[in-house]
Design a protein that fits this description.
With 164 residues, the protein is α+β, with helices and mostly antiparallel strands. It has four helices and five strands, in the order E-E-H-E-H-E-H-E-H. The strands form two sheets. The protein has a three-stranded antiparallel sheet with strand order 2-1-3. Strands 4-5 form a two-stranded parallel sheet.
Length: 164
């Protein structure tokens, strides 16, 4: 995987994007799949970034000191989100979870056959239908590289045969 620093042309928002290759970024951009997570703008470019240099394998890196645990004291309360941010975040999760549940109602569970079934539909060997199931990271990467349109399920889903 390659991490690119990306920039929204419309508003100048900067963010990271992970892609299998530079060509993968270009293909996804052509298909309108790359957008700014802040404003949704579709004109996104690779931003200039510093090269990531690694040390030679024969160089010894000094071991950094172990991090000291933070102690909460009356003068230094533990960091937390403001209540209004927590409430907005909880509401956003609720909306996404409800939307996912609605989508899954009209989708068929295919379990570990997900990659095979999605590929068959993509190449016209099976009738297109909404499906969900399990795929390894390697299978998902291969599907994306082949141009098969897939999306991750954001909240865990128990297979139907494992629900009590």
């Amino acid at each position: 995987m390659i991490v690119f620093d990306l920039e929204c042309v419309g508003a100048g928002h900067r963010f990271e994007g992970w892609f299998a290759s530079s060509e993968d970024f270009a293909r996804q951009q052509e298909r309108g799949l790359v957008s700014c997570p802040h404003c949704g703008h579709l004109q996104v470019i690779k931003a200039p970034m510093a090269p990531r240099l690694t040390r030679k394998g024969n160089q010894i890196t000094p071991t950094p000191p172990a991090p000291q645990p933070m102690q909460a004291t009356p003068s230094m309360p533990p960091p937390s989100m403001p209540p209004e941010v927590q409430a907005k975040l909880a509401e956003a999760f609720k909306v996404v979870a409800e939307a996912q549940a609605e989508v899954l109602k009209s989708s068929r569970w295919v379990g570990k056959d997900f990659a095979r079934d999605a590929r068959a539909m993509h190449y016209g060997d099976a009738e297109p239908a909404p499906i969900h199931g399990q795929a390894s990271a390697e299978e998902a990467k291969a599907l994306v590289e082949e141009g098969v349109e897939i999306a991750p399920i954001l909240f865990p889903v128990a297979p139907p045969d494992e629900i009590h």
